[in-house]
Design goal:
- The strands form three sheets. Strands 1-2-3-6-7-8-9-12-13-14-15-16-17-18 form a 14-stranded antiparallel beta barrel. Strands 4-5 form a two-stranded antiparallel ribbon.
- It has one domain: Outer membrane protein transport protein (OMPP1/FadL/TodX) (Porin).
- A hairpin with a 4-residue loop joins strand 12 and strand 13.
- It contains three helices and 18 strands.
- With 310 residues, it is mostly beta strands.
Length: 310
């Protein structure tokens, strides 16, 4: 038991050191230059409560976002819903369905919708011309398959549309994920390359997607009641960031979660903005999860997720 725990701890330290070294070597020059920011919003209260360190721990419908290779853990049909009450009146809704197809693998279909409320519309003179309702919508198809006892692979294909007033933009994207299960241990290594795809064009200006490479490790011990996970993300439009999270299950019913997320060079919204916390309740084939995330002066975000297996 001690050896895998030491491996995941060393992995976390190494990944943290790499992120610090890379951050010290340069200041990212592409911050705020990418489109389709919906793709960067984390999905699932369980994952968020664990410090958003889920690339190796992903094992439910939300694996379609974190690592589609994790869909292989879903053994029955599963339906998942998440509501994210974000700051500044922004709301994020997610709906996903997973369907195992035997030895062929596991399929998932998802849809995400971001509503930004009603915004005031003005002309060049500053005169009011009513309101408009910007939104983003994302459709996804994911597939995961176990190649052997140690390796599983996954793939996600996504179509995104953004609307601002009367203008719309579309893009296609793909994720490629993998899991490696260390033999004779509870240690899992994960990799997910996210948001490979086309550019989004509003009128005449084009924006690339926010490509992200996610790597990490998860270790399950005490018969699966305790999970420790860590990951590092290298986005193309911001600095490296690292997460560390834990989940502890009490009497097979209540799950307590905590984590921390750190961006190399310091969290822009303050140290406290890296904190994550959550709780989950399981009753037979149903799971209800909640996660809390502080965003400094911007306020707090609350995520609620529901999973049903049948």
């Amino acid at each position: 038991m001690r050896k895998p725990f030491l491996i995941v701890l060393v992995t976390a330290i190494v990944l943290w050191s790499v992120s610090m070294e890379c951050a010290a070597s340069k200041i990212h020059e592409d911050a705020g230059t990418k489109g389709a920011q919906l793709l960067k919003i984390s999905v699932g209260a369980k994952a968020v409560g664990m410090g958003e360190s889920y690339v190796a721990a992903a094992d439910d419908v939300y694996a379609s976002y974190w690592n589609p290779a994790g869909l292989i853990h879903v053994e029955t049909n599963q339906l998942g819903f998440m509501h994210n009450e974000w700051f500044e009146g922004i709301r994020y809704e997610f709906l996903g369905y997973v369907h195992p197809i035997g030895d062929l693998g596991t399929l998932a279909a998802t849809v995400s919708y971001v509503s930004m409320g009603d915004l005031d519309k003005t002309n060049e003179l500053g005169e009011s011309e009513g309101q408009f309702h910007p939104y983003d919508i994302l459709f996804g198809l994911s597939f995961g398959k176990r190649l052997n006892d140690s390796i599983s692979m996954g793939f996600s294909a996504k179509f995104l549309q953004e609307k601002i007033d009367e203008e719309k933009a579309q893009a296609f994207a793909a994720d490629i994920g993998a899991l490696y299960f260390i033999p004779d241990s509870g240690l899992i290594l994960g990799l997910n390359v996210q948001h490979l795809g086309t550019k989004m064009t509003f009128i005449e200006e084009s924006f690339s997607l926010p490509l992200n490479v996610k790597i990490g490790a998860a270790y399950r011990l005490i018969d699966g009641t305790l999970t420790i996970a860590t990951d590092v993300n290298q986005p193309t439009d911001s600095d490296l960031n690292m997460g560390l999270g834990v989940e502890y299950k009490i009497m097979g019913t209540v799950n307590l979660r905590a984590g921390y997320r750190y961006t190399a060079g310091g969290n822009d919204l303050g140290t406290a903005s890296g904190l994550r916390a959550g709780i989950g309740v399981e009753v037979r084939d149903y799971k209800l999860d909640y996660a809390f995330v502080p965003y400094g002066e911007l306020g707090q975000a609350h995520r609620i997720s529901l999973l049903a297996s049948f």
